[in-house]
Specification:
- The structure is a single chain.
- The protein is an all-alpha fold and 365 residues long.
- It has one domain.
- 69% of the residues lie in helices and 1% in strands.
- It has 15 helices and 2 strands.
- Helix 1 runs parallel beside helix 9 (182-199), helix 5 (73-92) packs antiparallel against helix 6 (96-113) and helix 6 crosses helix 7.
- It starts with a helix and ends in a 7-residue tail after the last helix.
Length: 365
């Protein structure tokens, strides 16, 4: 089966790359482009058709395996729904409200139609496995929304979101193969191929020429939904499964970024959905890292984290230790990328007050 999966993945990459080339001129006519300005520091007008190309390449390569559609009707329904909303957003900039509503609908399709939700969280505290009971569906919906928006938030540097997602898909493919889920392995391999075809035109390298392309909201929502779906499915299998805490190591970098950014925005009394330039890649570049160095560091960090989680699982480490180790990484991340921000804000405020006081004359004092 592996040669078949590889062939389908290569075909998906070819179709994805071909669609990017074919959609370049229509994207300019339909205004499916990203203009520089404000938070967006890229140069020139860039098409945002990568998400359409990924979805098209993915679905086209699976047409020779109709069983994939038959076994996952809810997954493909939610995926195509998010792709449609993503296209509308890439054309006309939908507000956050409608997008969140449709993300919620897709998450409900995943749980209520696909019967794919978090029932068991694992033995996180060395007592007994945690059963979510009546919280299974709400918790899964919340987790799905978090992952979908986390991919979108990290789509701010050439090659970053696509590369991180490709790393996650490869690890999920390995998990699906190891637990004997051939259908999931096929879907993950083909989707990985479609992402690879997109990355040919999104990574910062000379081979892409003048065909630079962004994935847009279409790509981020489709890929985030796929990551969320299979992260849940592979941990909730009735017989052979991946321990739930292992998935935290696979998607942890994204989740740590979205959590830190959300806390930072709330600390500023801003909406958690308000855009800014305070994501991990922005902060690294402000500290002197080049875009390519930042890309290599974050993708490498994702590979290392996912590998650590996988090795602990294969070595028979208990769920509670896998979970506790991940929390330790979260504490280090939070201290590195949030606390300095708070100290900087406090120092800046104190400096402003000091300058104001020193500028007052004696009578004003």
């Amino acid at each position: 089966m592996l040669p078949t999966y590889f062939a389908q993945a290569v075909f998906a990459a070819f179709i994805s790359a071909l669609l990017i080339l074919m959609l370049r001129r229509p994207a300019l006519r339909w205004n499916m482009v990203d203009h520089p300005g404000g938070r967006k520091r890229h140069s020139g007008v860039v098409p945002v058709t990568g998400g359409i190309a990924i979805t098209g390449g993915f679905v086209a390569a699976l047409l020779v395996s109709l069983s994939a559609f038959a076994n996952y009707p809810a997954f493909f329904a939610g995926l195509l729904l998010l792709a449609l909303i993503g296209v509308l957003d890439d054309v006309g900039e939908l507000s956050a409200g409608p997008k969140l509503v449709f993300q919620l609908i897709a998450a409900v399709l995943m749980t209520s139609w696909g019967n794919n939700f978090l029932v068991n969280l694992g033995d996180l505290f060395a007592t007994n496995p945690i059963n979510t009971r009546n919280w299974a569906i709400p918790l899964t919906v919340f987790a799905t929304l978090a992952v979908v928006n986390a991919v979108n938030m990290l789509d701010g540097l050439d090659g970053l979101a696509g590369s991180l997602v490709l790393v996650m898909l490869l690890f999920l493919f390995g998990f699906a193969w190891s637990v004997g889920d051939a259908n999931a392995a096929k879907i993950l391999a083909v989707l990985g191929g479609a992402v690879a075809g997109f990355l040919f035109f999104n990574l910062p390298w000379p081979l892409r020429g003048q065909h630079r392309t962004f994935m847009g909201d279409t790509g981020s929502m489709v890929l985030g939904y796929a990551i969320a779906w299979f992260s849940v499915e592979l941990t909730q299998r009735p017989v052979s499964f991946v321990p739930p805490p292992v998935m935290l190591w696979v998607v942890g970098l994204m989740l740590m970024d979205v959590f830190t950014v959300t806390v930072r925005r709330l600390a500023r009394r801003r909406s958690p959905m308000a855009p800014d330039r305070d994501h991990i890649h922005h902060m690294l570049m402000r500290r002197g890292w080049s875009p390519r160095m930042t890309l290599a560091l974050l993708v490498g960090a994702n590979v290392v984290l996912a590998s650590i989680g996988t090795v602990m699982w294969r070595a028979g480490v208990l769920d509670c230790w896998i979970f506790a180790s991940f929390l330790g990484v979260c504490v280090v991340y939070f201290a590195t990328f949030f606390m300095p921000f708070r100290l900087y804000r406090l120092r800046a405020r104190a400096s402003e007050q000091s300058e104001y006081v020193s500028g007052m004359d004696n009578d004003e004092r």
